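Saturday, quiet lab. Running sequence design on the structure tokens for the scaffold JK sent over.
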């Protein structure tokens, strides 16, 4: 046995240096495993012999022996780690390992095979896409309605700044069904470690979408967009405002006409501060998005409790920064699970609201930390609120969690320069400074999107549908050469239509049940 616990492969000598590399995961029935291997293994080496053995429980063994290379692909059945919608009772989840000897492979051949395996295992198959589509029934219904109306988006261009979530994949695929050309879709992905981030990116890229993963909107990104879409009418669907602001700076120079759609309060504030005359369709303050605040808070608290599952939180002090739409829900839920919650808020009106709700309230996080050591600090303000000034007032062990990803950026910049750093797999970052341990959960990104999909797709379906419907209505006007006046676009009318359709679908579901 080698160090990985695998039996030595027959054609590899005991003295050979064996390489074992996990190249991905596969989910399917035994028959589908066979088809996968058959489709995948292509060789120009006519003397190569391929044998597949699944006689041993929980293991499928594929040996390839030829002049160019001798290697094995092993698929080990493992406990299913994917959500239940990806599997049925006849399907299994496999880790896929590539095993070879340095002495018996052509390096070029084996590298090409590795790339082929990674590519094949990263892209969703047809059955998975069908199951993913079913997660957004309202979106699917709207798509069918628009198809009946003969909506065609062939000539529109859309730039998307969003998280690589399954619902966003469904959103783009629905736009494809209505004629959007993949080459006219530019997706700048936010830098979160969502559960299927690589697979969503791979699927979109495979189908012709330009996908860039980037924490910031860099000059390179805006230059590429301007070169691709100069003199075009561009719909910009943004989460955070940075994409809209970056393109607004160069729109005139490159004769681009922008139709901006923003989905976050932070993004609306950013755009208004930098481009006060720019008209933006505001989905952040729509009734549907406001109603999602509870779901976002619930998914965040669940993720906090899961990541810190081995830590005692009940009766510990927790500080929530910001008492807006999400902060209020976060404070309430964290109090419900046993934490002693305090609040800081710059708005006097919201501070008074927090007091009325029974919380101890401060005008700043610094004041709160000076008054009481807090174990858990939760950022919900959408602005930079904590920096090096607050470090002095922290306890020996503090856990920082953000829902907005903005609150702790100043602190992170300071710690990266001055503190000892360790990355903790599946948790985030640990900083040690002046005898204090500071845990930055989810690396300072939104906690509910860390190795997770955030709010469940069906729960978020109405807001995904609102984004989709807004893009369609704007796209329809652009295609007809009578572009919509963004300032006159009534978001609440769209919300009412979506809520009405959702109610009808819900009633139909009850009748069917």
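Result came back. Writing it out in full:
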């Amino acid at each position: 046995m080698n160090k990985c616990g695998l039996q030595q492969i027959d054609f590899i000598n005991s003295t050979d240096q064996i390489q074992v590399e996990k190249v991905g995961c596969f989910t399917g029935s035994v028959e589908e495993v066979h088809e996968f291997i058959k489709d995948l293994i292509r060789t120009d080496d006519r003397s190569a012999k391929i044998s597949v053995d699944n006689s041993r429980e929980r293991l499928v063994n594929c040996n390839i022996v030829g002049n160019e290379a001798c290697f094995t692909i092993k698929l080990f059945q493992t406990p299913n780690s994917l959500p239940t919608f990806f599997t049925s009772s006849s399907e299994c989840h496999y880790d896929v390992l590539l095993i070879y000897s340095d002495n018996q492979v052509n390096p070029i051949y084996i590298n090409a095979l590795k790339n082929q395996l990674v590519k094949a295992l990263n892209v969703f198959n047809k059955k998975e896409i069908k199951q993913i589509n079913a997660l957004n029934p309202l979106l699917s219904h709207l798509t069918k309605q628009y198809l009946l109306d003969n909506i065609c988006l062939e000539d529109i261009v859309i730039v998307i700044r969003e998280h690589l979530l399954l619902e966003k994949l469904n959103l783009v695929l629905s736009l494809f069904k209505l004629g959007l050309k993949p080459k006219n879709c530019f997706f700048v992905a936010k830098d979160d470690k969502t559960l299927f981030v690589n697979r969503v990116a791979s699927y979109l890229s495979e189908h012709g979408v330009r996908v860039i993963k980037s924490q910031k909107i860099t000059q390179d990104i805006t230059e590429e967009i301007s070169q691709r879409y100069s003199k075009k009418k561009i719909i910009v669907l943004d989460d955070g405002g940075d994409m809209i602001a970056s393109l607004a700076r160069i729109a005139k120079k490159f004769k681009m006409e922008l139709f901006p759609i923003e989905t976050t309060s932070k993004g609306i504030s950013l755009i208004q501060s930098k481009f006060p005359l720019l008209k933006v369709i505001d989905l952040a303050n729509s009734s549907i998005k406001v109603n999602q605040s509870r779901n976002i808070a619930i998914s965040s608290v669940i993720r906090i409790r899961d990541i810190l599952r081995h830590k005692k939180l009940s009766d510990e002090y927790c500080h929530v920064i910001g008492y807006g739409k999400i902060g209020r829900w976060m404070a309430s839920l964290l109090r419900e699970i046993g934490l002693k919650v305090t609040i800081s808020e710059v708005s006097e009106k919201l501070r008074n609201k927090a007091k009325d709700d029974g919380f101890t309230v401060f005008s700043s996080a610094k004041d709160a930390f000076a008054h009481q050591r807090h174990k858990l600090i939760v950022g919900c303000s959408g602005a930079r609120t904590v920096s090096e000034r607050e470090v002095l007032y922290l306890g020996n062990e503090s856990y920082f969690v953000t829902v907005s990803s903005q609150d702790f950026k100043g602190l992170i910049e300071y710690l990266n320069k001055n503190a000892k750093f360790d990355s903790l797999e599946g948790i985030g970052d640990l900083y040690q400074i002046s005898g204090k341990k500071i845990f930055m959960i989810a690396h300072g990104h939104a906690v509910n999107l860390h190795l997770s999909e955030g709010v469940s797709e069906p729960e978020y379906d109405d807001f995904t549908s609102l984004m989709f419907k807004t893009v369609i209505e704007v796209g329809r006007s652009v295609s007809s050469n009578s572009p919509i006046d963004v300032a006159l676009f009534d978001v609440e009318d769209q919300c009412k239509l979506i809520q009405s359709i959702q109610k009808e679908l819900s009633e139909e579901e009850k009748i069917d049940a």
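Notes for JK: The first strand starts at residue 18 and ends at 28. Residues 317 and 327 are 16 Å apart (CA to CA). Ask whether to fix the surface positions before the next round.
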